[in-house]
Amino acid sequence: MQPKQGKMKISTALLSVMLVSSIALTACGSNGNDSSNTSNSTNSKNTSNSTNSTDNSGNTSTDTSSTNANAAANNSGNAAAPAEKVTVEFWANKFEATTDAWFKKWVDSFNKSQDQIEVKLQIVPGDAWAQKLKAAQAAGKAPDFYTMNYGAIANAAKLEQIQPLNDIMDGATFDDLYDNIKDFVSVGDKYYAYPMLVEPSAVLYYRKDLYTAAGLDPEKPPTTWQELIDNGKKLTQKGIFGLATGQTAGDLGWSSWGLQYGAAGHLALTDDWSKADINNDGYRAVINFYADAFKAGIMPKQALAGYADASPFGQGKVAQEISGSWAIGQYRNDFKNMLDKIGVAPMPSQNGDPSTTTATLGGWSLVVDGKSKHPKESAAFISYLLGGDPNVMIDFFKTAQFSKFSPRKSVDEAMKADPAASQDPWRALIAEKVIPFSKAEPIYPWDVSMAVSTAIESAMKGTDPEKALAKAEKDINDFIAKSKLAGTNPKQAQ
Amino acid sequence: MFKRNYRQDNGVAYLLLAPIVILLTIFVVIPFIYSLKVSFYNWSFYQPSVFVGFDNFKFVLEDDLFMNALWVGIKFTLMVVPASLVVSFLFANIIKGMRSKGASFVKTSIYIPTIISGIVASIIFVFIYDYMGGLANYVLGWFGSEPRAWLADVKTALPSIALPAIWLGFGLTTLIMLAGLHDIPESYYEAADLEGAGPWQKMWFITVPLMKNIILYLTVTGFTASISQYELSLVMTGGGPLDTTTTPNLYILNHFRNDVMVGNSIAASLLLFVVLGGISAIIFKVLNSEKAIDG
User: Fold this and answer.
1) Which of these, A424, A367, A419, A413, lies nearest to A390 by C-alpha position?
2) Residues in chain A within 8 Å Cβ distance of B151
3) For residue A452, what pLDDT band results from cuts at 50, 70 and 90?
4) For residue A276, what are the β-bridge partners?
5) Gap between the Cα atoms of A88 and A84, Å rounded
6) Gap between the Cα atoms of A363 and A438, Å rounded
7) Which end of chain A is more exposed for a tag (fewer CB within 10 A), N or C?
């Protein structure tokens, strides 16, 4: 009798404990969701600040200082006007130090300019971005607005992760955009993001002095892939590599889009996303280009830096570097002594035709979270920063050393009056010879791009290019079947 | 009298157990049940979640990369666990034979890697393996060898990551082994000496059998720890080249970061849980833990 009773007791005790605690937990959960805006936003502030400091433990000091600045601004804001001021949270990807400083400068200026809205900026390092945002979304504490690259907008809009801006922003700010850029940020008849900049993903930088030393004409940059590789062979010497570009699948996934476009005339999926479209000579050529360049021994066996970082060229370890237009800003800010040795040219194409696409236009925009409680206030700041006074944006393009390009007509108009911008030869070269032939980044899922770039990397590492291509085709078609991708292209469905 | 005492004891026991039961319920039982539920949904944070049955599991099981990640995890474990057991067994024996002052110095120094975080260790080893100017290639240069791309070569990437994993773990395993060695009564060795046993015989017939439970414990914990390792490959290679260093947890993390829906990564975690539990059970079965002869 006794033991049995004891057992009964244990089980009932366990059950009641579980019940009580689960009730308590659900109560907590619903409480968090239903609670009024103010308490919720203070909550999210605290947690996000603390996570920020742990995330950044290995990172630069600018981030921690931003947290401190945020906390300070937050405190003073609360003290001054506890009830009236609406606090909106803004997460920005960590870009170049100059861009981070520009964000901080104009957030401060906005906060001082009025007493209705307090913008709280948090700069999040790129490698922590995705999981930090996911975790915040899962907890219902996503920031009110944040940076997003063009490629992600259509899908985020489809899944209602971001809000349409038509009703919360002045229509005139959108009329100011170039027509092709309007397409980047809209799905159907609605705008889901406001663009900040565009930048072509592939430009060739080469060392004029090394060209002369190797007996090459420094005024005649290569125009075909073959020339690029041949020059690379002549330029390679001990301690200096002839060519550097993306060479891991992760980097190749996005940095090779332009070459894919140029060689094949399209990207890796059919327009209705129903099957892979890579079993053709164009894609074969792209894979062979990378494999040939790697096997020619002119590239380092291990990338000296990621594709987005052009510092190995600035440090003199590389004679020809393919990188995005943003590298100009990096050279001008960090490698001033190298500037007169640098030649800039469009990325060569397969056959040398200068009108062939070799770069995609990527860039960043600001979006308002689908669950933001203060969409209007968020939009007000976005209008102020990106869509208002052209001088705000000109200030940005200046700090970026004119390595990025404006999506707004009025900003370009105003910039014409600026002597530094109008007389910049590199800016002119990219504006005239690269951007007109560039295409928009694809919006299909990243898995597809990874399948292609995995094929490129495996061909570089010795797999037969035909086999690599066949595997990529199968992987993409499998992915389409499993994730029911066919017919879901948000741009086509509208 | 007896009965009443018994009941009182029960009450106190429940009271004392309550905190841990409540904590376990909140932090283990409820999340586990919740994740089981979520794994059957296309879980979205912005739209109503859609019930999809076993689709997430099917998706993961049909994914070559998941199977590849499991295989990578197992290869990685086979490199790390036996090597670290052998190395720490040697170190433990050496320390046991040392005089106390020297022994405590060695014990402290081999424990240092254990308190270094995996992230810091990865960064240190990234510098060592650096293609231009890394320590490893510098040493190779003495022998006139070409520099090697340790972390970018399909063949060397995984062993290159296994090395810091062994380095990180062997301090702790050595100390546990050492404690086990000290537990073996000296009289056994003296008896063996009288019988004329050599050092190998002593090790094989006395040390190893009596260390069996310790070795079993270290194998199982080492297995779980190294198959769930992900920060080394995350920092050092990002899972590349060509997914040769994508461990199961890195696979899950990548899906969590990149996928629009989260159900997939949760299903993968649950499947990993099943695999881990299964393999641990097999190890226990094969190495059958027993009470030591001496008690």
Assistant:
1) A413
2) 302
3) very high
4) A269
5) 13
6) 13
7) N
Q: Which amino acid is located at B16 in the chain?
A: L
Other Cβ atoms closer than 10 A to B200: 8
Tell me the residue length of chain A. Answer: 494
Q: Do B29 and A6 touch (CB under 8 A)?
A: no
Compare all CA atoms of chain A with the CA of B150 and give the residue at the minimum distance: A302
A368, A234 contact by CB (below 8 A): no
CA distance A348 to A350: 7
Q: What is the pLDDT of residue A149?
A: 87
Find the angle CA(A201)-CA(A203)-CA(A209) to the nearest 5 degrees: 150
Between β-strands A86-93 and A117-124, what pairing exists: parallel, antiparallel or unpaired? parallel
Q: CA of B18: how far to CAs of A2, A8, A10, A11, B24, in Å?
A: 22, 16, 11, 13, 10
Tokens of B132: 């231009």
Does the CB of A138 have a partner CB in chain B at under 8 Å? yes
Higher pLDDT, A338 or A15: A338
Confidence of residue B81 (pLDDT cuts 50, 70, 90): very high
**Distance, CA of A480 to CA of A476 (rounded, Å):** 6
Q: How many C-alpha atoms does A253 have within 13 Å on its Cβ side? A: 17
- Which chain B residues are within 8 Å of A155, Cβ to Cβ? 260
Q: State pLDDT tens for residues A389-423.
A: 888 888 888 888 888 888 888 888 888 888 877 78
Please determine, looking at this structure, whether the domain spanning B57-287 carries the CATH number 1.10.340.30: no
Given a contact cutoff of 8 angstroms between Cβ atoms, the answer to whether A65 and A19 are in contact is no
- Chain B residues touching chain A at CB-CB below 8 Å: 3, 6, 10, 14, 18, 21-22, 25-26, 29-30, 44-47, 59, 62-64, 119, 123, 131-132, 147-154, 238, 240-243, 253, 256-258, 260, 262
Nearest to A304 among B6, B132, B242 (CB): B132
Burial category of A82 from C-beta neighbours within 10 Å (exposed 0-12, middle 13-18, buried 19 and up): exposed
Q: Please name the residue that has the structure tokens 């570097």.
A: A321
Question: What is the structure's pLDDT at B65?
Answer: 84
Q: Where are the domains of chain B?
A: 11-52, 57-287
pLDDT class of A79 with cuts at 50, 70, 90: very low
Of A300, A304, A371, the CB nearest to B46: A371
Phi/psi for A87 (5° steps) reads: -100, 125
* Average pLDDT along chain B: 83
Residue of B nearest to A10 (CA): B14
Give the amino acid at B283. I
B258 with A447: Cβ contact below 8 A: yes
Give start and end residues of each alpha helix (H) in A204-280: 208-213, 225-235, 249-255, 257-264
